[in-house]
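We give the entry.
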Amino acid sequence: MSATALDRPRLPALTSIRFFAALWVAMFHMQAMKAFYFNAAAVRQLASIGYSGVSFFFVLSGFILVYTYSGRATGLREFWQARFARIYPALAFCLLITAPGFFYCCVMMRAHDPQFFVPEWTWVAPHMWLSAVLSLTLLEGWIPQAALAWNMPNWSLSVEAFFYFMFPFLLPRLTRLSRRQLAAIAPAGWLLALGCALAYMRFHPDGSAEITIKTIGPWINALKFHPLMRLPEFLMGMASGLLFLRGKQSRKMAWPLALTGLAAIAAVAVLSPWIPFLVIHTALLGPAFAVLIYGVALRPAGVEVLENRVMEALGEASYPFYLLHNTVISSFFIDWSTGRTYHQNLLGLATWFLIAVAVAVLVDRFIERPLRRLLRPRRKAAVTVLPVSA
């Protein structure tokens, strides 16, 4: 029988590595906005698949929720309230400061001003108020055309909200599975996700002759952003978390597992010019992320580098950093009146990084944490989450 949730040690290294995943996503968007400084092919190829950082978040979320709540007396209302308190304050702040740009662009698009045309908002602009409601209620991911409404990175919060809703119902069922069955979840989910991507590439349901990172359509948006399509990654994380709790947790396996995960990520980055982006986008690296997270959770030698106060603070600020990085990139690097980019040098990159981190830390310290304490549950409700079986 594994230790109860209250007996488990903290895993600060997993908090810290969240920041690197968020930075990876930011690198991708900087490159997409032509604001990226580095010209080295290896760095650019790594940045070109930075959208995979969101997949890492989904896998990590499943792992951490299992590690935190499995074996712990937690009611439905208490769990959902705690999750709401965790994600909504920073999200509300992000929506507030990005609202002027969103509504202004939508109004100008409806007036047919090409200067403010945002391809991802072709459906959103005519349905501006519906899109706003979907974003506020974390439901935009369920309407493929609205997935990237308002602040584009927010689509992943719609997916996470679905995961949070399902977690109390999924955990008891996964708990009943054997180790072999749990181990089969990763390859099964991986094959399902890849099969959907390959089917899209075979049948072209949106009618696009060429499928690229810029391809937009209801079917490809559903494949990339719909909560049900991202569920396999969350299940990979949950299964890994249960296997971790049931295993011997030998530190001897920490570095081999972590390095295996990192090697797989590096291999996909190197081979990315020859791998269809849709295959990479749909959970190709999910198993690699699960292995990496498992290895880091085992605390390999030298993990103390990730467990100091500075790294943990960056990890805690990774959520507002992720939500706001697009806004900071577009504000710092791009003159939207002319379309020109500025500060494309090492000093500019360092300045952007310091600004983005400072904003994220301030949001985490003065908005997210105080409101989380205010909103989190005060008392426990009836027990609904089952303990881990032996």
Residues 42 and 366 are 38 Å apart (CA to CA).
